[in-house]
Amino acid sequence: MTVATGTLVLAGTPIGDLADAPPRLAEELTAADVVAAEDTRRLRRLTQGLGVTPKGRVVSYFEGNEAARTPELVEELIGGARVVLVTDAGMPSVSDPGYRLVAAAVERDIKVTAVPGPSAVLTALALSGLPVDRFCFEGFPPRRTGERLTRLREVAGERRTLVYFESPHRVADTLAAMAEVFGGERRAAVCRELTKTYEEIKRGPLGELAAWAAEGVRGEITVVVEGAPETGPGEIGAEELVRRVRVREEAGERRKEAIAAVAVEAGVPKRDVFDAVVAAKNAGAASGA
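Above: the chain's sequence. Below: its structure in token form.
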């Protein structure tokens, strides 16, 4: 006997301007048997703005109850329900609740589909003025300084354009860390309040953006960073090699491992990196004498 199953619908919601909502969003919210919302109050404002009223049951589905609520929603789906999942903005499961439910539905062979909607990642990338042919999304950087530096160090040599989300309260520290790890001259763009009234795109070298953000930044933030430049063997200067070793050491790596990693990353012999570090150390000792 075939078990009837429903459909899980991941519904993208506007990231700012309500007029960006796709027509299907209103249809799905109206017809759903269950609407699982990251914030039911925001859902209410959304449905009022769209002029619709969900006929089905509305439940909360956020980080705090995601693990417990997922089995309940899977049972609804197995029973034939059409479950629509929405988050506060953008596409569910992209740095938002949803991944657990999608994975659980896929495991039970339940149909999963989507209502495509606005994306802060793609919007910021397109507006940044940086290369868009190859990119990677890194989500939110870690909150703790050491963990943040470690994560950034892992992608310091990444040649694809990098896209991050960040809190307005931490964006200044994150940009400063990016300038330290990637280099202050690496190009970037800070995209604030996308599609909203006070939308702002601030472009420039990471060092300048870090200084600008230190004065305070408000709103929803997406940061786009240029990928590492393509460099051949011997093209990276001694000063840059030393800087990369220092960043790794500050993140907790031993000097020997840091030198070896930088050598691989830069495509130069370990001896060249070692000599650069020793020379810098001797120069620092001489100037302090």
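The first strand starts at residue 7 and ends at 11.
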